[in-house]
Fold Trophoblast glycoprotein-like.
Amino acid sequence: MARRQARAAVGGRWLPWLGLALLPLAVPPAAAPGGCPSACYCVATPELVTCRYERLEEPPRELPAAVHNLSIAGSNLSILPRAAFAARPLRDLRLLRLRHDNIHTIEDMALQGLPALRTLDLSHNPLLSVAAGAFAGVPLLRTLQLNQALLAAPLEEQLALAMQNLTLRRLELAGNALQALPASLLPPGLEELDLRNNSLQRLAAAELRSLEAPELRGLRLNLGANPLSCDCALRPFLAWLRSAGSRVLDARSLRCAGPPARRGAVLLRLRPEELVCAASEGGEPGQLETASYVFFGIVLALIGIVFLMVLYLNRRGIKRWLHNLREACRDQMEGYHYRYEQDADPRCASAVGTPGL
């Protein structure tokens, strides 16, 4: 009994100290310089900061100076003003994710103060305006993700100006309902372009030629989940795909979305002669030429039939006109014959030669 009481006394002596030791784990630390912001949480180390669905209206100001990856999702940033992340220098920030943040405007020098930034993700934002100097101040930026960010407005010209001084290696434009290859958004040296889940029916011959430019010969594409139309207009793309298949990373998974007879067919398994155009779609060049000749022949035949009908209906008048023409020709010939006989008669000739007799 005495031994149990001694043990209880020893345990009671250490209990307050144990409570003090566990207190920091029970109470979240307040934001402090170099610590994790109160509206965010840090994973493992302060180098990875995530702020999700906190409805922030501006980027957190109290960020760890050593942060490498910063993710803000589900907020209402709306506008990225000049030097939006420069409240505290973030010289080591390499990845910045701003997904689902309702960003519609990016002003000049918005990323000032992020000299080490290499990856910028602006996906799932309704972008309406991108200033020409929006990406100035991030000379090391190599990856730009704009998936489902170009649906609210046509921004190809604005983005082309904003990207002209970047040295991008990867550009993601998935889910933007693009109907053609955005040639103006392909900077020299680009290595990977993600065009999945757009509205591409094919890559036209001119677009394929642009991909063969010397500055884009190392470019690889992702084209999955596009509604490819497997008709005669797809033949140049199919030929290019077979000759440069390694440049399309998901070439083996490309399937036809139309016409109905080819829906679901694997593109690389089709032969060029199987890609035909229906008459409602304009037809192939050879078929068009044949149809033109047939139509021209039908028109000529109709004209000939009409002409024959006119002749038939006026056969009596034409017969009378031919009879009159023949009689006129006969009278004319008889006149010529009479004059010839008169000229050939020697009596008439001698009479003309001796007028005094």
Summary: The longest helix spans residues 315-344.
